[in-house]
Amino acid sequence: MLLKNKKIILGITGSIAAYKSILLLRLLVKEGAEVKVVMTTAAKDFISPLVLSVLSGNKVITEFTEDNEWNNHVALGRWADLFLIAPLSCNTLAKMAAGICDNILMAVYLSATCPILVAPAMDEDMWHHPATKRNINTIIENGNSIIDVVAGELASGLTGEGRMAEPEMIFTHLIEKYFRGEALLGKKIMVTAGPTYEPIDPVRYIGNRSSGKMGYALAEAFYLQGAEVILISGPSKEKLSYSGIRLIKVETAKQMYDECIIEQDASIIVMSAAVADFRPKNAAAQKLKKSDMDVSINLEKTTDILGYLGDHKKTGQVLVGFALETENEKENAGKKLMNKNLDCIFLNSLQDEGAGFDKDTNRLTMLDKDGLTEWPLETKKSLAGKIVVKLIQKYC
Length: 396
Ligand code: CTP
What we know:
The strands form 6 sheets. The protein has an 8-stranded mixed β-sheet, sandwiched between helices. It has a 5-stranded parallel β-sheet with strand order 2-1-5-6-7, sandwiched between helices. The chain has helices at 19-30, 49-56, 73-79, 90-98, 104-111, 124-128, 130-141, 167-178, 213-224, 253-262, 305-311, 329-339, 380-395, and strands spanning 7-12, 34-39, 65-66, 69-70, 82-88, 116-120, 145-146, 150-153, 159-163, 188-193, 198-199, 205-206, 228-233, 246-249, 268-271, 278-280, 299-301, 318-325, 344-349, 361-368, 371-379. It is of the alpha/beta class. The model has no long low-confidence stretch (mean pLDDT 95). The protein is built from 13 helices and 21 strands. It binds cytidine-5'-triphosphate. Residues 253, 271, 273, 275, 277, 302, 304-306, 321-324, 336 line the site of cytidine-5'-triphosphate (CTP).
């Protein structure tokens, strides 16, 4: 869980975007955060405090005093690891810039000792008003961070800039900026993902059914442990959640090889790409006409990238391979472990229901000098997190 033991205050102000705070709260709680919600009176017109108190498991704070008890805003401001205000209305933005303390949310803001992140939401004309620009600059100068508004449909019925960023965007931004681990700080990790496409002509290619899901999940899991991550990806529909991962897109095995050579000084290299073993010997420059086409295509071998990296392995470097086998699985994977000079290899099996190409789940067996470790069927994302933790324990 990415936010285990983390304490977050979620501030909600009066904006139609307040309904998205419910989803945001769910995301935070699901990842293990303890969340206390503070909302303004205007925010209560948009969502019910009851929903937020049930979902957070904590009392929602809306007033300075409730039931003859004082809500200690100073203690709250010091309790949190992060104060997230989403949505931030134009009005509360102006109060933040001016330092006005006329409600409990502003009192918590002015006493908070933790970082403060805000996600503004307002109509486009308000967003572009010089006063708003000035207020945004002021709160940035005062040390707060902003998640930019996005363009789209607005409450006014107009379309333009001013929508609050989507909850998933706010969530990944928050994790990336404040809550990455540090186990791999200072380490460079290279991950490859996806298939490669080997052209027959400008239209046709030889490829395979790899989706890249496992490689993308691994790149993100390494990144969340504080590493500098370079992801070299063949054609894949996957998208990275975190902007700090360096993505290099390639098409062919040759291009992947060239990029891997440039990055081969990485401390850990994980070759999860399904690199094509063969390519057409002479790719045609123009589309081949059916009438001119040979029924057979002459192929040549591509370079075994992992084999090359194994032959040129640096001292202390950790080399990780993947193997996809359909028969004599463990034996064949064991051979690849030895022949390619790897520290460990993960065996994918096509035999398992729910595992394999384009699935969100996978089942893996890890082979290394100590023997076998079996990983039960689970999502590629959570499997990636566990694999990275295991690699850190074993090799870092
Ligand atoms: N690999 C590579 N370069 C290639 C082919 C494979 O770097 N040209 C890497 C893959 O990324 C994977 C490992 O080698 O980590 C094993 O790939 P796999 O396709 O299972 O095995 P091959 O070595 O290609 O052998 P075979 O196809 O005979 O099983």
